[in-house]
Amino acid sequence: MMNPDVLIVGAGPVGLTLAIDLGQRGVNCMLIEQKPGPQYLPKMERCNARTMEIFRRMGLSRKIRAAGLDADVPMDVYVVLSMNEPPLLHLPYPSVNEALAEIDRVNDGTQPLEPYQLISQYTLEPLLKSVAEELPSVTVRYGCEFLSLVQDENGVSAKVVDADGQVQEIRAKYLVGCDGGASPVRKQLGIKLRGEGNLLQLRQALYYSPDLYDKIPIGPGAGRGRHYHVADGQATFLIMQDSTNHWTLHAVVEKDEDMAAQFEKAVGVPVDYEMLYVGQWKQNLLLADSYGTGRVFLAGDSAHLVIPTGGLGMNTGVGDAVDLGWKLAATLQGWGGANLLRSYEIERRQVGDRNVGASRYASLGRRKWRSQYRPDITEDTPEGQATRDNLARIADIEQRKTNEMIGAELGYRYVGSPIIWEEPGGPEHLFRDYVPTTWPGARLPHVWLAPGEPVQDRIKSGYTLLRLGNTQADTSGIEKAFRSIGAPFDVLDIASEQARQVYSHDLLLLRPDMHVVWRGNQAPEDAATLAAVATGH
After folding, report:
1. Could you report the per-residue pLDDT of 102-140, keeping only the tens digit for each?
2. Do residues 100 and 115 lie in contact, with contact meaning Cβ atoms separated by under 8 Å?
3. CA 536, 513, 350, 61: dihedral to nearest 10 degrees?
4. Which is nearest to 419 in space by CA: 347, 311, 520?
5. CB 306 within 8 A of CB 314
6. Looking at residue 455, what DSSP letter applies?
7. CA-CA distance, 514 to 64, in Å (whole number)?
8. Contacts with 154 (C-beta within 8 Å, 6 or more apart), sequence order
9. How confident is the model over 177-235, as pLDDT tens digits?
């Protein structure tokens, strides 16, 4: 019998991120995965801005950018009849280099520290696997299938079968199911997914076509981008993958083999290609009734399933992983109180619920413009032109809902959490727009202290008290209270007037995931209670 502190079931991006986070905190964990290795499947395509900030905290953002799409490639979105005709709609979006230049120019808290990065799951997973395997406290086992679990007040016993067919028992203090939408862990717990299931069935195919990107036949001055929505009756959608040599296509067709003709029709001109994979998938908007029971937790797709519109699936799961990671580490290290792990579901299920709603909002937008398709759309007639104009006009409003989700990415705030200091009220949760705030529960906005020096890079991995604008407030009571609990704690003096202006208070207390616990201009009268709330006591 093997005895890790934490057993993680499922080695997709969420399980691997959790293993890395725990490993970097020195927690003994084991990651098991039924498949023999990372799969060459085009499941996700983009790490959003918040996920890239998280990966920067882990020291991984540069590696991920080096492995993903080149930084000078535009992220434009097109609505087309086919790729060899002038687009009905062209929505320009900045390349990573252009986004970085904008982030460098702006210092009012409205920008993320890191822009998005297009990277396919089949590129990201092996990268994260290699990082996890280098951490001494992490064991990674592929070809190891989870069978069942039994838990008691001291831990969880899991039965697994290894690559040789041998059934083994693993005893862990905690278990986390990062095992996808069909999660065997969730089913063992008897937890239901609820919401809207099987909204649409599509086929997805992966193609290798090394000359398509250079030959995109859309007219001069346009053409290069990442998404091509074909205005047809089959919901055809072509996506450029991170190498620009691979492409995925989604469409409603009858048979797997129909996806070859569908690709040729979407491209519109002859190109060399090889179809590497075809599979079916269903659109779901589902949320688990709970995020775990006792010592077993759910994260990622095992807890929430969204339609990829808006790009919130894997990215929400990475947020789950880093929220749970520091709380597990704190509990195992002995300084975290019982409310830390209790807060995981309270905090992350509300984000899952909001992001299911954001995905629904984006998906309804796409469905709305697609509903304007008429068979005469390709005809060179006044009626055909009217259909094209009408669809493009509506898509210019509705398609943006999918591609402009910065509010959902950066602006989520934990409400009603037992480890966040209560401050009544709070700003509205927005999907499309991000308004920087330090309201307790919110992510710390990005501010430059000097060129190339963000506040975030000066913040360590425990709790941090930011002292802003040369405040003279006596914070010795807060420091003493945290140190008496044994929690990792730092004080950081930031003289920058710009930071004080953006953060709006002299004092900010941050927790390890850079969410604000408390803010004020003077230390609270009862610092011990603040420290107890923040650490889950």
Report:
1. 999 999 999 999 999 999 999 999 999 999 999 999 999
2. yes
3. -160
4. 347
5. no
6. G
7. 21
8. 173
9. 999 999 999 999 999 999 999 998 999 999 999 999 988 877 555 678 999 999 999 99
> What does pTM read for this prediction?
0.97
* Residues 7, 175 contacting (CB under 8 angstroms): yes
Q: What angle do CA 125, 131, 135 make, to 5 degrees?
A: 140
pLDDT at 142 (0 to 100): 97
In order of 221, 250, 307, the CA distances from 217 in angstroms are 11, 20, 30
Single-letter residue type at 410: L
Secondary structure letter of residue 515 according to DSSP: B
**C-alpha span between 431 and 217 (Å, rounded):** 34
β-bridge pairing 77-80 and 155-161: unpaired
Q: Tokens 């929400």 map to which residue? A: 316
- The rounded distance, in Å, linking the Cα atoms of 377 and 301 is 38
Q: Dihedral sign, CA of 184, 186, 187, 189?
A: positive
Q: Is it the case that residue 246 has pLDDT exceeding 90?
A: yes
Q: Are strands 77-80 and 89-91 parallel, antiparallel or unpaired?
A: antiparallel
Contact between 519 and 438 under an 8 Å Cβ cutoff? The reply is yes
Residues 186/187/190/194 CA torsion (nearest 10 deg):
70
Report the interhelical angle of 49-57 vs 313-333 (nearest 10°). 30
Token match 């659109």: residue? 283
